[in-house]
Each structure stands twice: as structure tokens, then as C-alpha cells.
Amino acid sequence: xxxxxxxxxxxxxxxxxxxxxxxxxxxxxxxxxxxxxxxxxxxxxxxxxxxxxxxxxxxxxxxxxxxxxxxxxxxxxxxxxxxxxxxxxxxxxxxxxxxxxxxxxxxxxxxxxxxxxxxxxxxxxxxxxxxxxxxxxxxxxxxxxxxxxxxxxxxxxxxxxxxxxxxxxxxxxxxxxxxxxxxxxxxxxxxxxxxxxxxxxxxxxxxxxxxxxxxxxxxxxxxxxxxxxxxxx
Length: 233
Known about the structure:
The protein has 233 residues and is an all-alpha fold. It contains eight helices and no strands. It has helices at 8-41, 44-52, 54-75, 79-115, 124-146, 149-179, 184-216, 225-231. Helix 1 (8-41) runs antiparallel to helix 3. The longest helix has 37 residues, at 79-115. This is Phosphate-specific transport system accessory protein PhoU. It comes from Variovorax robiniae. InterPro entries: PhoU, PhoU-like_sf, PhoU_dom.
């Protein structure tokens, strides 16, 4: 993932912390897959397994952050090395937040099951969005491991699809609640669940932006797609 440095120990430390980020990413991915399964099957046990992983994710995020602080203090990196460490720190924070969103999904699934409305609510679209969000995170982690800016741009574009799914689902859910007010409580749970899925897409998009920051030294947040593509040419 990183270029060779004059200090082989520094190089080893960078590779080590990068590997830990990929490990954290795999753990969070697993959380999402279990959460999507819990949603598709309305499976309370699967939802419980998602929530059981939260402590491990939080602990690993803190450990990586501690290691990064130690590397920066001891090595005083500059230029691209410093950008890489900053981006790793931000990526780790975003992965931890993805884990939080997976946990929210699991809690909402359990709430919907307990309400007794699980089988009557419209959930096909939200499952599609969940699969899109899960796939986007996988692509973001792969692109981060390779520092692939072309893949990063693709991820930025794909996040729009998740936003469109979310907007369409909200409109449908509002109509559904108006037609059957008895499902308002469970429908609101489903709405919060949909928002959590949208946020997973947003965090994946953030990771893609960090890739461009590492490679080009440009902060592309709040930048149009045309400007981003022009900067990468």
C-alpha cells in the first residue's frame, strides 16, 4: 500500500497499521452483512450478533488511533507520509461509524420484529439499498488498499444511487403510513433504518475522498465531480 521508505522500521509500522485498518474494515463488513441478513429475514438472533461485535470494533478503532499518534510523534512524517497517516486516521473513524450504523440497523430490525409489523412493511427497496451500501464499502476498502483514484471516483458517483434509493423509499413509506396509520411506529423504525443505510454509503464516499487526498494532496470534499475528474487528469 505504501512506497518504501529510508527507514525500514517506519515502512513496517505503516504497513502494520494499514493492515489493521483492513482488518477493521473486514470486521465492519461482516457486521453489515449480518445486519442485511437480519433485515432480509427479520431475524432477531442475527441482529443480536451484529450488536455483539460493536465493542470489538470500538476497541480496534481506539487501538489504531493510538498507534497512529505514536508513529506521528516518533517519526514526524512529512508530505505524502503525513497525508497517508491522517487519511488512515479519518478512514478508521469512518469505519467505526459504519459499525455504529450497522448496529442501528440491528436495533431497528429488533424493534420492528417486536412491533409485530415485520411482514407487512414495504422493505424490498431498503434491502436493495443495503446491498448497494455494503458493496460500496467493499469497493472503498479495495480502492484504499491500492490507492486507486480511478476507483475512488467511481465510488463517488455510485453513492448517488444509494441516495436515490433512499429518497424513493422515503416517499413510498410516507404514502404507506398515510394509508395505514396503525403502522406509523414500525414505519418510523424502518425510516431510521433506511437513513442508517444511506449513512454507510456516505462513509464509503468519505473513504474514497481520502484516497484522492493521499495521492493528489487535494481535499475534494464539497467539490463537483467535474472538478475532481479534472484534477486527476
